[in-house]
Amino acid sequence: MNSKSQVMKKLFLELLLCILGCLGMKGYAQQNDTFNPKEHAVIKPERSDGRYLSSRGVLHGMLKGIRPRYAFRPDMTTEELKKWQVELREAMREIMCFPVVADQPAPKKIGEVQREGYRVEKWEAYPLQECVVPYLVLIPDGVDKDHPAPTVLCIPGSGETKETSAGEPELNPKFAEEEPQERWIIALPYVKEGCVAVVVDNAGAGELSDLEGYTIAPAYRYDAVARYLLELGWSYLGYNAFIHKYVLDWVKEQPIVNQKRIVICGFSLGTESLMVMGVLDPDIYAFVYNDFLCRTLERAIVMTEPDKNGIRPFPNSIRHLIPRFWCNFDFPDIVASLAPRPVLFTEGGLDRDLNLVRKAYEIAGRPENVEIHFYPKYAAPQDRKMLGIDSLPEGINRKTYFDLVNVDDPMHDIKAALMIPWIQKYLK
Amino acid sequence: MNSKSQVMKKLFLELLLCILGCLGMKGYAQQNDTFNPKEHAVIKPERSDGRYLSSRGVLHGMLKGIRPRYAFRPDMTTEELKKWQVELREAMREIMCFPVVADQPAPKKIGEVQREGYRVEKWEAYPLQECVVPYLVLIPDGVDKDHPAPTVLCIPGSGETKETSAGEPELNPKFAEEEPQERWIIALPYVKEGCVAVVVDNAGAGELSDLEGYTIAPAYRYDAVARYLLELGWSYLGYNAFIHKYVLDWVKEQPIVNQKRIVICGFSLGTESLMVMGVLDPDIYAFVYNDFLCRTLERAIVMTEPDKNGIRPFPNSIRHLIPRFWCNFDFPDIVASLAPRPVLFTEGGLDRDLNLVRKAYEIAGRPENVEIHFYPKYAAPQDRKMLGIDSLPEGINRKTYFDLVNVDDPMHDIKAALMIPWIQKYLK
Fold first, then answer.
1. Any CB–CB contact under 8 A between B171 and chain A?
2. FRET label pair with B169: which of A253, A301, A391, B291, CA 20 to 30 Å apart?
3. Would you call B221 an interface residue with chain A, using a CB distance cutoff of 8 Å?
C-alpha cells in the first residue's frame, strides 16, 4: 500500500509536463483547455436505462456490483465466525496459487557477523528450482536451543531492503532509502527486547532486484516481476507470500525459536504478505500491521477523478493485482479473520473498517487483542472526517482519499515507539 | 499486437528524457554513466548453480520452462489433430471466462443512412446488464432475406473506431486516426464485393471510450479497462471477444446473412478477438488475419535489452495479459487449430511459425486454404533473416525483434489489395 514511489513518479511526470508546457511542446500529452476534470470525476451511465457505453463505465458498474463471497458479517455467531475463517482460508489458498515443490535443498547458512548484543546470520533458501532467496536472522546474545526466544518475521515496505529493515549496511549504496534510515528499521526494536528477528526481501527488491542497483534503485521495477507472474496465472502477492512462507516454515523448525510466539511484522507493502500468511498459517501467534487499513475495492470505485488529460488514476500498480481477490474479500475481512490472535495497527485507517476488525475480535471473545493507533494528525476523533459515516464519496482524487481514510502519507514509516510496549506486553 | 501507441509513448518519453538531459535535470530517471545496457541484455543466472537471485531472473527461468499444454505438434495424425482442436477449444473457453448472462433485451436498430451502393445501419446490443455495445451493419443494395450475402465481422486495430473501419464519419473529430484514413478502412472492400460487413469497436475505444474524446484520443486507455477486468478474474481479450461474440451470435440469426459464409477480419489488436472467436465457434467459415504472426511467449523471453535506466521492455501492455494463456498455447497454435478453414495472412511473420500453420492445414487435408503474404520489405526469402532458423536470440530490443520476425512496422495497415482477390476466390 506504500505510495511513495507512485508519488515520486507522479511528481516527476508533473515536472516533465511543466517543462514541456514551458517549451510549448505538448505532444502526446496534449490537453483540451475546455476539459474540466471535476465535471467528470464521478463515473455515471451516459443513458437513462442505466447502461454504460464507456467500457471503463461498464467496469465501474461491475465493480460496484461485487458482493465479496467471504466478507465478514458483524452479525456472525462465534460458531459462524469459526466456519467463515476456515472458508476464507480455503479461498485464500486457492487464489494464492502456491505451487507444490519437492526435492529442493534445505536452507543454508552462508555468513555470520557479530553486532553489539546480537549476531546477524545470513541464510539462503531455495523455494523453487529457479530461485535462491537470501534472508537475515538476528539472534540476541544468550538465545540458543536451551533458551529459545519469541521470533518476528519482518517484511519491508516498497523501496526498502532486508538490510535497511535490519539496520545492516546495504549491499549496494544505491539500495539506501531516503534519510533518516532509522525510519525504516523494523527488526532492531524486537531484537533489543530479546526476540529473534528474521528479515526477508520483497520479490524484486534489493538483493532480489534486476538491474536497478546500477541505475534507479531504490525505485524497483516490482511491476516487471508482477507482470510475468500474472501471465503465469500467479501474482506478485502470491509469489511474495510463497517465498516468505517458505522462510516462515523454516523458522518453525528452528530450536532457538519459541514456537508459541511467532509474530509477523509487515510494513506497507509487507502487510499484504503478512495478511496472506496470517490467514494460511494458524500457528502464527500475533501480527504487527504497520500501515493504514482500507478497502481496496472501494478505493478503486471512489478514486476516479481524472487529471487534466482525462486520465483517471489507478489506485495502485499491478503488483497489487490478484485476480479474483475482490470477489472473495478485502483487507478488513482478512484482518478480521485473524481473530482472536493479537494484532497491533500502527497507522490506523478508516474507523468503519477498523470497527469490523474490533467486532470480529469481540465475537471471538478477545476484544482486548486489537490495539489500534492512528497517525497523530488523525488521533483525535474530531479530526477523522468519516467517523460514523458508512461509505466514501465517489469521484475523489488520491489526496482526498488519503485525507478521508486518515492517512498522513509523509509520516508513513515504522512506528517503533508503538511496537516496543506491545512487544513487552505480548512477547515476554 | 499493434505497437503504434507503444512506439508513440516510447518516442515521447525519449523526447522528454532528451529535454531533461539538455536542461541538466535528470531527477527520477537518473542514470549511471557506467551502465552499459548491451552487457545486461541477456538475462542469466548470477550463480554457478543455475539459480537466479533476481526475481525478474526467476521469472525468466520460469517462462523458459513453459511447455504449452496445447501446443501444435507437426507429427499429429489427422485424428490427433481433430482431438487436439477440441481440447484446445475447451482450454480457450476456460481461460476466456465468458459469463452466462440471461434476460438481456435483443439488439435494436437505432439508425440508418444510405450510402452509394449500400446502406449503413446502426445497432445496439446489450451483452451484460451494465453495458450497451453499438455496432454498424453495412448492407449492399440488393441484399435481403431472399438474397443473403456472405458476411464479414470486422474488428479494428488499436486506435481505430468502428467508424474509421467502416469509412464512416467519426462520432468525435478527436477519434480520427492519422492520415490517410484509407489505411484503416476494413469494411468497404468487402461491401464493394457484395458482402455484408458488421463492424464493432474494441472495448475502451471510440464510442466505448471514457474521457479520451475530450483529450488524448485516438490514444485510448485500454489498460484502464484491462486492469479492472483482471481484478475481476477476467481479461481485456476475454471481455472484448465476449462482446464481439455476442454480436457474431446476432449475425448468425440474420436472414440477410449467408450462414455458410461468415468471415472474421481482424486488424492488429482485432486479430486477438478473431483468434478467440475462431477457436470457440466452428461455424465461422474463414479468417483474414491482418497482422504478423508471432509467438508472444518467445517475444517476452527474447526482448530483454534494457534501456539506459536498466529498464527492460514489456513486450506489450496489460491489455494483452491473459492469465495462463502461455501455459496453454501461443498464437501460432491457435491459428493452426483453425485448419482447414480458409485463412489469409496479410503481413506475414516468422517462417517457422507460419510453417506450423501450413503443416496443420496439410494434416487437415487442405494446404491450399492458407494464403500468406509478407510485408513487401520481407517478401523475398533472402530478406528474411530467420528463414530456416528455429529460435530467436535472447537479449534483443524491439527494433531487432521486429526485424527478425519480418515486421515493417510503419507499413502496418489494412491490406485491401490482398483482401479483394481473396474475397473473390472464397466468398462468391
1. no
2. B291
3. yes
- Reported as a pLDDT band with limits 50, 70 and 90, residue A317 is very high
Half-sphere exposure of A8 (CA within 13 A, CB side): 16
Return the residue of B nearest to A321 by Cα. Answer: B231
ipTM confidence score: 0.92
Check B231 against A300: CB less than 8 A apart. yes
Give yes or no for a contact between A277 and A248, defined as CB atoms under 8 angstroms apart.
yes
Q: Would you call A208 and B54 a contact, using CB atoms and an 8 Å cutoff? A: yes
Whole-number pLDDT of residue B346? 98
Chain A: nearest CA to B118, how far in angstroms?
27
> Among B15, B65, B208, whose Cβ lies nearest the Cβ of A55?
B208
Backbone dihedral region for residue A119 (phi beyond 0: left; psi -120 to 50: alpha; all else: beta): beta
Residue carrying C-alpha cell 525519449: B14
Most A-contacting residue of B32, B126, B210 (CB-CB within 10 A), to test interface: B210
Residue from the list A16, A58, A229 with its beta carbon closest to the beta carbon of B128: A58
Nearest by CB: B15 against A27, A31, A130: A27
- Write the DSSP symbol of residue B349: B
Q: Is the model's pLDDT at A21 over the cut of 90?
A: no
pLDDT the model gives residue A34:
86
Question: Which residues have CB under 8 Å from A69's CB, separation 6+?
Answer: A91, A327, A328, A329
- pLDDT at res. B343: 98
Q: What percentage of chain A carries pLDDT values higher than 70? A: 92
Q: How many other CB atoms are found less than 10 A from the CB of residue B409?
A: 15
Stretch A316-322: mean pLDDT: 96
Q: B72-106: b or e for each residue (b if 16 or more CB lie within 10 Å)?
A: beeebeeeebeebbeebbebbeebbbbeeeeeeee
Q: Measured between alpha carbons, how far is A336 from A248 in angstroms, rounded to an integer?
A: 22
Q: What is the pLDDT of residue B19?
A: 46
**8 Å CB contact of A314 and B227:** yes
Residue A383 DSSP one-character state: G
Chain B CB within 8 Å of residue A18 CB: no
pTM beyond cutoff 0.90? yes
pLDDT digits (tens, 9 = 90+) for A356-373: 999 999 999 999 999 999
pLDDT value, residue A24: 38
Low-confidence ranges of chain B (pLDDT < 50): 1-31
How many whole angstroms separate alpha carbon B186 and alpha carbon B192? Answer: 11
Residue ranges of alpha helices (H) inside A178-313 are 187-192, 222-231, 236-251, 269-280, 296-302
Q: To probe the interface with B, which of A23, A172, A210 has the most B CB atoms within 10 Å?
A: A210
Residues 21-40 of B with CB under 8 A from A: 23, 25, 27-32, 34-35, 40
Q: Where are the alpha helices (DSSP H) in A184-235?
A: 187-192, 222-231
Between the alpha carbon of residue B141 and those of residues A7, A311, B191, B193, the distances in Å are: 58, 43, 10, 11
Selection from A50, A35, A43 nearest residue B210 by Cα:
A43
Whether A63 and B234 have beta carbons less than 8 Å apart is answered as no
Window 184-213 of A: residues touching B by CB (8 A cutoff) are 203-204, 207-212
Residues of B in contact with A237 (CB under 8 A): none
Distance CA(B386)–CA(A387), nearest Å, equals 65
The whole-angstrom separation of Cα A383 and Cα A376 is 10
Asked whether the beta carbons of residue B208 and residue A54 sit closer than 8 angstroms, the reply is yes
Q: Which string of DSSP letters, residue by residue, matches B119-130? A: EEEEEEE--STT
| Residues B310, A216: C-beta atoms closer than 8 Å | yes
Q: Is A227 on the interface with B (CB under 8 A)?
A: yes
Nearest C-alpha in B relative to A18 = B16
pLDDT of residue A14: 47
